[in-house]
Amino acid sequence: MLLMETLMSMGHTVCAVRATASGAVAAATRYVPDLMLVDTRLGRGSGVAAVAQIRQYQDIPLIYMSGSRIPGRRPTDIVLYKPFVERDLALAIFDAMMRHRAEPGTGHGSTSS
Length: 113
Description:
Strand content: 5-15%
Order of helices and strands: HHEHEEH
Helix content: 25-40%
Mean pLDDT: 88
Distance between the termini: 47 Å
Number of helices: 4
Largest sheet: 3 strands, parallel
Shape: globular
Radius of gyration: 14 Å
């Protein structure tokens, strides 16, 4: 729960913490968060598999937390390699939000006429 406390001390609201892929998918559906922090290894299932399911119907910016490479992720996905410190987390959150806003198809990127 240290991550949750860190996020809250940074001024963020934590809407859910889930330890399974199915729980993560259900939480994303219920809360539609502004950002997801996803561990690649969950108690049951894979964070990568959960993200693939969520992305079928929602486009939520995310940060993968991992100790190793993550095959099959989008080039724009942010990976926060463990172990990390609060400054790394803050920079990853900023970067994930900026990339998502600039990404075509999210409704947040700029368009030209």
